[in-house]
Amino acid sequence: MAELQNDRFLRALLREPVDRTPVWMMRQAGRYLPEYRATRKEAGSFMDLCRNKEFASEVTLQPLERFPLDAAILFSDILTIPDAMGLGLRFETGEGPVFDKPIRSMADAKKLYVPDMASDLGYVMDAVSTIRKDLNGSIPLIGFSGSPWTLATYMIEGGSSKTFAKIKAMMFDQPATLHHILDVLADSVIAYLNAQIEAGAQAVQIFDTWGGVLTPRDYNEFSLRYMHKIVDGLKRENDGRKVPVILFTKGGGQWLEAMADTGADALGLDWTINIDEARARVGNRVALQGNMDPCILYASPERIREEVATILAQYGNGSGHVFNLGHGIHPEINPEHAGAFINAVTELSGQYHK
């Protein structure tokens, strides 16, 4: 593999000195870019795009041609694992993901298995190694997975949900069934992320998109416990370098200390907590990634720059901050506004690293 030319993202995750704050965006390869929409059309369906390593690499690299980003993230979907378990995933226009065979009972749960990473999910590893080759050592590549709780919400609800009524009913009424599902998912995520690391991912992120819908007690038992198991099971070094792990629970600002206890290297923050407060609470135990409200990108470039300056000042001096949005970029955002955000971070952050 080519020598890494820009490693400030990896260094910041490990709280090592950097010359400026690194920046990337969740969903940076996505629908807000006209070139992505063109490739997606050419590929056919969303999953066809994910399953074709050349297309997956092409869309991963598209934002890097526009913006001075410090990391690339694998183009894939969080639902690849449940899809590989044979639950009949399809994407309905305007409705999002739908599973034809949702999990509703212990009998259903007992049929779940850890997918074979080479045969069932080999297309993801092919994409990782292709992207890594195409990056040619320019910047690091992030691999990722959904958290067990988040994956289970889709598998049990049968798709997206506003109330999470089915999974919560199972959690309260059949906890043993839910724990069985989460255990199989945690084992699957460990195997999946380790396979991505072996294929060339240089950092990994666990997306716990729906952990924030839980009470503190239930978050600890049904979400954090399984992410802790994953962190314990991950390969933390490859190619002679540490492989940092980022945990991101949307709506998880109240649980940062417990998240840091997992042994993760960094915590992702959404916009509902100030980064100075988060830093004061976790100290030097973990790096922090975040945490600008994605909706700020609807504002003028001047207002975007102001917001970047505010968050940089809130974090203050020293390493351990990776600048990002507090969740994925919205599809309607003007790419020039995304550019204004990224340029502001690269131009304004150096003063905090002298």
Count of separate structural domains: 1
What order do the helices and strands follow? HHHHEHEEHHEHHHEHEEEHEHEHEH
Gyration radius (Cα, Å) is: 19 Å
The main pleated sheet reads as: 7 strands, parallel
* CATH topology (level 3) name: TIM Barrel
Mean pLDDT: 97
Adjacency order of strands in the biggest sheet: 1-4-5-8-9-10-11
**Structural class, from secondary structure content?**
alpha/beta
CATH class: Alpha Beta
Which architecture per CATH?
A: Alpha-Beta Barrel
Give the N-terminus to C-terminus distance in angstroms. 32 Å
Q: Work out the helix count.
A: 15
Strand elements, count: 11
Q: What proportion strand?
A: 5-15%
Silhouette: globular
Helix percentage: 40-55%
Name the assembly state. single chain
List low-pLDDT spans. none
Please give a structural write-up.
The chain has a single domain, classed as TIM Barrel. 46% of the residues lie in helices and 13% in strands. It has helices at residues 8-13, 34-43, 46-51, 53-66, 80-84, 106-110, 122-135, 148-157, 165-173, 175-199, 216-233, 256-260, 275-282, 301-315, 335-348; strands spanning 72-73, 89-92, 96-99, 141-146, 203-208, 237-238, 241-242, 245-249, 266-268, 287-292, 321-325. It has 354 residues and is an alpha/beta fold. The mean pLDDT is 97. It has a seven-stranded parallel beta sheet with strand order 1-4-5-8-9-10-11. A two-stranded antiparallel ribbon has the order 2-3. Strands 6-7 form a two-stranded antiparallel ribbon.
